[in-house]
Amino acid sequence: MLILGIESSCDETAAALVEGGHSVLSNVVASQIDTHRSFGGVVPELASREHLRNIGFVVSQAFLEAGKKYRDINGIAVTNGPGLIGSLLVGLSFAKAMAFSLEKPLTPVNHIEGHIYSAFIEHPDISYPLLALAVSGGHTSLIYSPAPGEYRAVGRTRDDAAGEALDKLSKFLGLGYPGGPVIDKLASKGDPRGFTFSIPKISDGSLDFSFSGFKTAALRHIEQSGIKPGRPGRKISQKILDLVASYQSAIIETLRLQTERAATAYHPRSILLVGGVACNSALRRTFKESFEYQNPSRRDRSTVRQAIPVYYPAPVFTTDNAAMIAAAGTPKLREPLPLQLDLNAYADLRLC
Ligand code: KG4
Ligand code: ZN
User: Are 270 and 309 in contact (CB under 8 A)?
Assistant: First the structure.
């Protein structure tokens, strides 16, 4: 099965050719970071126009790099939500036109399911049931999957996404865009105990997340400590480094705590860390240390649970890409599908 994946849900125009669900022959991503940088965030109208400009080139480049012809594919998988509606429609319309002219089957893929499959590209033998933490600029969800293609929403953010929270602090402090990778780098030079952020307790005991309080607390710390936003080329003060480290650490602890509680409730055999924020080095380390090893000092009866292997994709498959869409679409395309030319995109498409 040779599948073409197409992804255009946010600010990356991407196409990939994937064989058998795991073997990535090409993975082309045209990033729009430079277009949106001066606005400090993605501008939907500009994103759609950039997708329109890039999609033809990106798809033909994916075939060129894989050494394949259009007719060689067995089907097309395309993201149809959630995401920016104008951006989604560019990829979807392109995929429909290709499927129609090549007479190949087409399947829609939920972007979050794509992120879950991103972990399988390098680790095809991940065991079910699994618990996936999908953390990106637009989403923060805990999803329990007892078997391939079956999903149960266990927890989701009630306000900002984790990536959005990181991007916003970077914007307040003038550190650059997108904020996640900058904060990842700077946090290692700061003291995570330098500033206090209290971890929110969701009062109904659910496994949901909340990050907006951290943003308010950060603004208060900035004001009270007299922190001035940085400027390009200027040395970054130790206070800023400490604030960034403390903020990142609070976000990671929130993610870890809710994942720990979900693992205790659902007993997964694997934990997946996926979505752009899963590139974060401290988050990856914390999850490996918390879930893969049993800390004897914490072994009281209430917290005993088996060590659980943690999987995350290589960075190229962690941020938005089309290889993960092709991987998620492969099992769907094994079944015969009618050509769905009325297929639509949905900004708020739910996985479960
Ligand atoms: O999955 P993704 O590429 O797009 C969405 O579906 O949203 O995720 C983008 C998010 C941005 O918020 C970006 O700041 C964050 O992922 N990100 C990171 C890192 N690399 C990207 N956050 C923390 N640490 C990183 N190394
Ligand atoms: Zn994403």
Answer: yes
pLDDT at 79: 98
pLDDT at 256 over 60: yes
H or E element at residue 217: helix 212-224
For the whole model, what pTM was predicted?
0.95
Residue scoring higher pLDDT (103 or 293):
103
Which of 170, 249, 279, 284 to mutate for ligand 1's pocket (most ligand atoms within 8 Å of CB)?
279
Locate 59 and state its tokens: 């798809």
Confidence class for position 303, pLDDT limits 50, 70, 90: low
Ligand 1 binding pocket includes 114 (Cβ within 6 Å): no
Nearest ligand 1 atom to alpha carbon 83: 6
Is the distance from the beta carbon of residue 166 to the nearest atom of ligand 1 less than 6 Å? yes
pLDDT at 295 over 80: no
Look up residue 195 and give its two tokens.
Answer: 């500033």
pLDDT given for residue 41 in this prediction = 87
* 275 CA to centre of ligand 1 in angstroms: 7
Whole-number Å distance between alpha carbons of 311 and 290: 13
- Statement: residue 176 has pLDDT above 70: yes
Beta strands in 136-239, from DSSP E residues, in sequence order? 140-145, 152-156
Q: Are 114 and 185 in contact (CB under 8 A)?
A: no
Angle at 31 between CA 44 and CA 190, to 5 degrees: 95
Q: What is the distance between the terminal CA atoms of the chain, rounded to a whole angstrom?
A: 27
Cα 320 to middle of ligand 1, angstroms? 9
Residue 64: in which H helix or E strand, if any? helix 44-66
- Checking if the pLDDT of 296 tops 70, the result is no
